[in-house]
Amino acid sequence: MPELPEVETIKGDLQKKIKGKKIKNVVINIEKILKKPSLKEFVSKVKNRIIQEINRRGKYIIINLDSGEKLIIHLGMTGLLIYPIDQKSMANIIPKHNHLIITFTDDNQLVFNDVRRFGKVYLVCDINEVEGVAKLGIEPLDENFTKEIFIRMIRKKKNKIKSLLIKQEFITGLGNIYANEVLHRSNIHPLRVASSFTDEEIGKLFQGIKSVLSEAVEFRGSTVADEAYRDTDGEKGKFAERLQVYARGGKNCFKCGSTIEVIKIEGRSTFFCPQCQKL
Ligand SMILES: [Zn+2]
Q1: Is residue 268 annotated as a catalytic residue, yes or no?
Q2: How far is the CA of 257 from the centre of ligand 1 (A)?
Q3: Which of 25, 112, 191, 239 could form a disulfide with 219 if both were Cys (CB 3.0 to 4.6 A apart)?
């Protein structure tokens, strides 16, 4: 499932590639992905509009239109945004999963491709009209996410830290891959209770969140074993080869050589080094 670094990569690509373009036509092949408004209203409101800034909130991509409305896309589990559509970008993509196709006046096309169909598309005036968005937590790469604020956020929480980190209402954009990586980098056991942390440990965790996420953005996200994630060119993200614990159960820790262990926390595989991350 795409997390903050993957969505941020796609956002950045779209900002460079489609800003200023005018939409000639839009086709939705599977109505299920369109959550708001009706198909007819969507098509008529999107046609002839010019793309303005592209933003991101959590795992939502926000494409601002010159009408003031926002085209919002959540990639779900396997959603991809591919631009432009050509032989190279479509080499690893199955065309029958192209569910939304936007054609610009220069005849280039942006496609939303989603094998598992958990992706969602909205056209709204205000992003808070999208279900769940108003409750999203702080953006971890924002300047206003500071160590002091994080200490206040975490101090009284009784949750296990791994569970807390993947809660979108707490910090938005962190999912299973990066929560595992952040905890390993911060030398914190995933089952530790948040309220038991010292200020120093919270500081390390804070640095871990900032550094893992910004490096993952720099390396354009992670395409892991399921091969699902691609950027807008159809290329893999290059952070997967830098992952320290995720999907490395039974292998040796790069830092200390101990065997990486796997446990389930809330049904999600959780990878950690018992030597580097003591309970
Ligand atoms: Zn280790």
Answers
A1: yes
A2: 6
A3: 239
Handedness of CA 46, 1, 171, 133 (dihedral sign): positive
Assign domain 147-272 to its CATH architecture. Orthogonal Bundle (1.10)
Q: What distance in angstroms lies between residue 277's CA and the mean position of ligand 1's atoms?
A: 7
Write out pLDDT tens, residues 242-253: 999 999 999 999
Question: Is 2 annotated in the active site?
Answer: yes
What does the block give as tokens for 132? 């769940």
8 is annotated as an active-site residue: no
CA of 6 to the centre of ligand 1 (A): 26
The domain segmentation of the chain, as residue ranges, is: 4-134, 147-272
Q: Do domains 4-134 and 147-272 have the same CATH topology?
A: no
pLDDT less than 50: residues of the chain: none
Superfamily of domain 4-134: MutM-like, N-terminal (3.20.190.10)
Model pTM score: 0.96
